[in-house]
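fyi for ur records
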Amino acid sequence: MPKPNDTYHVLARKWRPQQFDEVVGQEHITRTLKNAVSSGRIHHALLFIGSRGIGKTTTARILAKALNCQSSDKPIPEPCDKCDNCIEIGKGSHLDVQEIDGASNNSVDNIREIREAVRLAPAHARYKVYIIDEVHQLSSAAFNALLKTLEEPPSHAIFILATTEAHKIPATIISRCQRYDFRRVAVPDIVHLLEQIVKAENRKATKEALFAIARSADGGVRDAESILDQLMTYCEGEITYKDVQDVLGLIETDKIDQLVYALQHKDISKVLSIIDEVSTSGKDLNQFVEEFIRHIRNLLILKTTQQENFFFLPEEDIKRLKEQAENFTIVQLMKFVEQLAELNQNFTSQLSHRTALEAFFIKNCKVGAELSIEAILEKLIQLEDAIQFSKKAFVQENRSTYPQQENTTEKKTIKTPSSEKIEVREPVKTTSSTLNSGTSIPTTEPLPSKTVSGNRGDVDKDFTKKVLRELAYKRATLTLSLKDVSISHDATTEAIIIQVKPSDNNALSCLAEGDTKQYILETVNELGFPSKQIQIIQQEMEPYESSIQSPRRGLLKDLVPTELAQEVKQDPKVQFLLNRFKGRIVKVAVMKETEEGAPLADKEIVEEEINGDELDID
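which gave:
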């Protein structure tokens, strides 16, 4: 650690780590390098990749000291920092450890000089170490000249290449190196380091100020130390959050809060006045937009996760963020982030940026961020599904008016002018309706749905359809979630029994809601089935009988020849009966006279009621 002296050094140099354990936030790299030094498995070429100010060059220097420390007869993971080699390497003046700037030494000639020098044995150290910073600045010819030396250097040579732009490094270079990716340092780690520096420098700083510095550094330790150094010069006493705002030009927290409040209440005048204050005070609008994006990002994360461990803010700030997040939807916050990120690019002047920023807020105050193509399409799809389900329920209602049940139908004979009789299966319960011609024709009314009394395994499909159909009139989206359930009524206990598959998550989540149960209770009572409670049974259901393939399907067409069916259909009354009862001709018998004069059925037309799935009128 640094020692006090009369010569002033900036904090970034004064507090530069001298040991692997002092490097902040790069434990995954320092541990690997320490183990490599201890075991002697030291690669001849290493590639350090990462953003600015996170310890690439610092780690390279520490590795050079560990390889050449004179306190031991072999490399050690913890250099002594007292021998001549450690001191000279720390100062950057050792002859065998050369730090080369790739930006200013990027030609083929510079690489040729390195190739010539690397052949010579080290003067005072065990290893010759070449640290090439910003190596991506080398020209293509320089990279090609370095390839052979980098692949098979002398045993005493170690190359350490550092870069902030890994995509510019040729694949041939990367394949010859061990790659180490440095991470951006987390905010708590930077704050902990700043607290140590402030304490060692006999200064004071608030927690909010240190967090603001760490956030502004964007993961860079050197940037954080430089900002702290500037604030120590600016402030005479304790460093506060207000001092950080003044030095860095950050937007005041109350301005951001006022802007969010104005955006929530669509107060355009207030929004424009805040933007005018920020612009006239000399603040950078780019930085203002970035601060606002960071604030909206915090609201979005709180809205979606409800977790506070993603933030490094004081408790009062998190409480304020929660209150603000409740006033926006997730769609609104996502649209804010997308539009602001696009807004903050490709602006060349303050005026154009201000105009675009004002237009953004006016648009969201007048129109609203939720009015988007995605939201409109989602609502249209929901509406379309509801309409289609209502139509399907209506068609099923018309078809279920004439169920094919042996115990609810009887044969009725109608004499035709050709001495033929037509036997029609129709429901027992009938009423009469009169045509325009005055002829009274029997019509049907839907039979009441069968109730299930005491036997939960006997489920009535028609009763389920009727309940879902009635629910569709109240809330169509509800019936979409319950389309695969079976509903029955227990007259003994006055309970509604709902059978649902355990794997049907949509139905289970829908039934878990209190409103759904209330809707079902009201609907069943309106249908005339007294109900007080709902019982939900989770089990696999057997298919209904009507859904099982009938042996008669596909055979009815062959019962009556086509020519005979067409001939019988010419009779107007037959046509009326076929249309009225949605039936078809399956048998024809001719009437004959017996010796006693009683008619004998030699030819009869039988029109049978069939399931809607089998409906096929010739």
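The first helix runs from residue 11 to 14. thats all i got for now
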